[in-house]
Amino acid sequence: MLSRPLMQRSSALGFLTVGMGAGAVVLVLAGLVKGSFAALDHFTTAQWIAGIYLGAGGGAFAFILWVMARATPTRVANTMTVNPIAATLLAALLIGEPITANLLVGLLAVFAGIWIATSEAKPA
User: Do 58 and 20 meet the contact criterion of CB atoms below 8 Å apart?
Assistant: First the structure.
Protein backbone atom coordinates (compact mmCIF):
# COMPACT_ATOMS: atom_id res chain seq x y z
CA MET A 1 0.00 0.00 0.00
CA LEU A 2 1.31 3.44 -0.95
CA SER A 3 1.50 6.00 1.82
CA ARG A 4 1.76 9.20 -0.23
CA PRO A 5 -0.69 10.52 -2.86
CA LEU A 6 0.33 10.28 -6.53
CA MET A 7 0.99 14.01 -6.72
CA GLN A 8 3.61 13.80 -3.97
CA ARG A 9 5.24 10.63 -5.34
CA SER A 10 5.78 11.87 -8.87
CA SER A 11 7.49 14.79 -10.50
CA ALA A 12 5.42 17.77 -11.58
CA LEU A 13 5.99 16.91 -15.23
CA GLY A 14 5.05 13.26 -14.63
CA PHE A 15 1.86 14.28 -12.84
CA LEU A 16 1.04 16.72 -15.65
CA THR A 17 1.56 13.98 -18.25
CA VAL A 18 -0.74 11.55 -16.44
CA GLY A 19 -3.37 14.25 -15.92
CA MET A 20 -3.34 15.43 -19.53
CA GLY A 21 -3.29 11.84 -20.78
CA ALA A 22 -6.32 10.95 -18.68
CA GLY A 23 -8.11 14.06 -19.92
CA ALA A 24 -7.31 13.16 -23.53
CA VAL A 25 -8.68 9.64 -23.07
CA VAL A 26 -11.93 11.00 -21.60
CA LEU A 27 -12.30 13.49 -24.47
CA VAL A 28 -11.71 10.80 -27.09
CA LEU A 29 -14.26 8.51 -25.43
CA ALA A 30 -16.81 11.34 -25.26
CA GLY A 31 -16.16 12.11 -28.93
CA LEU A 32 -16.68 8.48 -29.87
CA VAL A 33 -19.95 8.28 -27.91
CA LYS A 34 -21.30 11.48 -29.50
CA GLY A 35 -20.05 10.66 -33.00
CA SER A 36 -17.99 13.85 -33.12
CA PHE A 37 -15.17 12.33 -35.15
CA ALA A 38 -17.26 12.39 -38.35
CA ALA A 39 -16.36 16.07 -38.76
CA LEU A 40 -12.68 15.13 -39.11
CA ASP A 41 -13.39 13.60 -42.53
CA HIS A 42 -13.90 17.10 -43.92
CA PHE A 43 -10.82 18.77 -42.39
CA THR A 44 -8.46 20.54 -44.75
CA THR A 45 -4.68 20.52 -44.30
CA ALA A 46 -4.85 24.00 -42.74
CA GLN A 47 -7.43 22.82 -40.19
CA TRP A 48 -5.27 19.82 -39.23
CA ILE A 49 -2.24 22.09 -38.78
CA ALA A 50 -4.28 24.52 -36.66
CA GLY A 51 -5.67 21.68 -34.54
CA ILE A 52 -2.26 20.15 -33.95
CA TYR A 53 -0.82 23.55 -33.07
CA LEU A 54 -3.62 24.31 -30.60
CA GLY A 55 -3.33 20.89 -28.96
CA ALA A 56 0.44 20.67 -28.82
CA GLY A 57 1.63 24.27 -28.85
CA GLY A 58 -1.17 26.06 -27.09
CA GLY A 59 -2.01 23.20 -24.76
CA ALA A 60 0.61 20.64 -23.85
CA PHE A 61 3.72 22.72 -24.56
CA ALA A 62 2.42 25.67 -22.53
CA PHE A 63 1.78 23.41 -19.52
CA ILE A 64 5.22 21.85 -19.85
CA LEU A 65 6.82 25.31 -19.87
CA TRP A 66 4.91 26.29 -16.72
CA VAL A 67 6.03 23.11 -14.97
CA MET A 68 9.64 23.60 -16.00
CA ALA A 69 9.55 27.25 -14.89
CA ARG A 70 8.19 26.18 -11.50
CA ALA A 71 5.54 28.88 -11.77
CA THR A 72 3.26 29.44 -8.81
CA PRO A 73 -0.35 28.25 -9.08
CA THR A 74 -1.54 31.88 -8.95
CA ARG A 75 0.58 32.87 -11.94
CA VAL A 76 -0.48 29.83 -13.93
CA ALA A 77 -4.16 30.42 -13.12
CA ASN A 78 -3.88 34.06 -14.16
CA THR A 79 -2.27 33.29 -17.49
CA MET A 80 -4.74 30.46 -18.14
CA THR A 81 -7.69 32.86 -17.82
CA VAL A 82 -6.11 35.58 -19.96
CA ASN A 83 -5.17 33.21 -22.81
CA PRO A 84 -8.66 32.77 -24.39
CA ILE A 85 -9.39 36.47 -24.02
CA ALA A 86 -6.15 37.41 -25.76
CA ALA A 87 -6.99 34.92 -28.52
CA THR A 88 -10.46 36.43 -28.95
CA LEU A 89 -9.10 39.96 -29.15
CA LEU A 90 -6.48 38.85 -31.66
CA ALA A 91 -9.20 37.15 -33.74
CA ALA A 92 -11.16 40.41 -33.69
CA LEU A 93 -8.13 42.25 -35.06
CA LEU A 94 -7.01 39.67 -37.61
CA ILE A 95 -10.22 38.20 -39.00
CA GLY A 96 -12.93 40.61 -37.88
CA GLU A 97 -14.58 38.49 -35.17
CA PRO A 98 -17.20 40.63 -33.42
CA ILE A 99 -16.56 41.95 -29.92
CA THR A 100 -19.81 41.16 -28.13
CA ALA A 101 -21.28 42.11 -24.78
CA ASN A 102 -20.50 38.58 -23.55
CA LEU A 103 -16.81 39.11 -24.33
CA LEU A 104 -16.77 42.41 -22.46
CA VAL A 105 -18.48 40.87 -19.43
CA GLY A 106 -15.99 38.00 -19.59
CA LEU A 107 -13.10 40.48 -19.70
CA LEU A 108 -14.38 42.24 -16.61
CA ALA A 109 -14.91 38.94 -14.78
CA VAL A 110 -11.43 37.66 -15.62
CA PHE A 111 -9.72 40.89 -14.62
CA ALA A 112 -11.74 41.00 -11.38
CA GLY A 113 -10.73 37.40 -10.65
CA ILE A 114 -7.07 38.15 -11.28
CA TRP A 115 -7.28 41.20 -9.04
CA ILE A 116 -8.92 39.18 -6.24
CA ALA A 117 -6.43 36.30 -6.60
CA THR A 118 -3.38 38.54 -6.50
CA SER A 119 -4.51 41.00 -3.84
CA GLU A 120 -3.17 40.52 -0.36
CA ALA A 121 -5.65 40.36 2.47
CA LYS A 122 -5.59 43.38 4.74
CA PRO A 123 -4.82 42.62 8.38
CA ALA A 124 -7.88 42.81 10.61
Answer: no
Amino acid at 107: L
* C-alpha–C-alpha distance, residues 54 and 61, integer Å: 10
User: What is the residue type of 48?
Assistant: W
User: What does the pLDDT read at residue 104?
Assistant: 87
Question: Helices (DSSP H) in the chain: which residue ranges?
Answer: 6-9, 12-34, 45-52, 62-69, 73-95, 101-118
DSSP code of residue 64: H
- The predicted-structure confidence for 66-110, as pLDDT tens digits, reads as follows 777 776 666 666 667 777 777 788 888 888 888 889 888 988 888
Who has greater pLDDT, 65 or 37?
37
Q: Give the CA angle between residues 23, 32, 39 to the nearest 5°.
A: 105
Residue 35 DSSP SS3: coil
- Tell me the C-alpha distance between 93 and 85, whole Å: 13
